[in-house]
Amino acid sequence: MPELTQDPGNGRAARGSFQVVEVTGPSMVPTLYHGDWLLVQHGAPVRPGDVVILRHPFQQDLLVVKRAAERRGGGWWVLGDNSFAGGDSTDYGTVPEELVLARVRARYRPLKKDQRSVFGVLGWAVSALRPVSSDRSVSRRLRAR
Predict the structure, then answer these.
(1) Which residues make Cβ contacts (< 8 Å) with residue 50, sequence separation at least 6?
(2) What are residue 37's phi and psi, to 5 degrees?
(3) 62 contact partners, CB below 8 Å, separation of at least 6
(4) What is the CB neighbour count within 10 angstroms for residue 115?
(5) Taking residues 56-60, what's their average pLDDT?
(6) How far, in Å, CA of 74 to CA of 99, rounded?
(7) Strands 129-131 and 100-108
(8) 39-55 pLDDT per residue, tens
(9) What is d(CA 130, CA 113) in angstroms, rounded to the nearest whole number?
(10) Pairing of the two strands 75-79 and 129-131
(11) Are the C-beta atoms of 25 and 36 separated by less than 8 Å?
(12) Is 102 in contact with 66 (CB distance < 8 Å)?
């Protein structure tokens, strides 16, 4: 499951404040990759399909990034975009609302060493900074299971 190398707060960050965090792990591939940087907004309203930062329900010192699939009984059912990686609500159930800390607004993908060719740099420039939207259809994924 993707962990974050910088803690986006202790749950008491000012509503609407922004912070930058780094992703580690594969559970949000292909949306997010290990080494991506995220701009997150604390206290932003969450809708189904949004990518969010949350405290792991069983290990609350661990922060994870997942997609909010749907509201369920006072919390969120969250899923990783990489169904083979695990570590989401299929393992730990609904995440209480108070453990969802922030909404991901944008992703920055740093330039890698193997992207130093002209085509590599051009490809990186086109995709390096992107808003993270809720356009990935979670409902389609749920029906497929």
Answers:
(1) 67, 68, 103, 104, 134
(2) -110, 140
(3) 3, 55, 56
(4) 16
(5) 93
(6) 11
(7) antiparallel
(8) 999 999 999 999 999 99
(9) 20
(10) unpaired
(11) no
(12) no
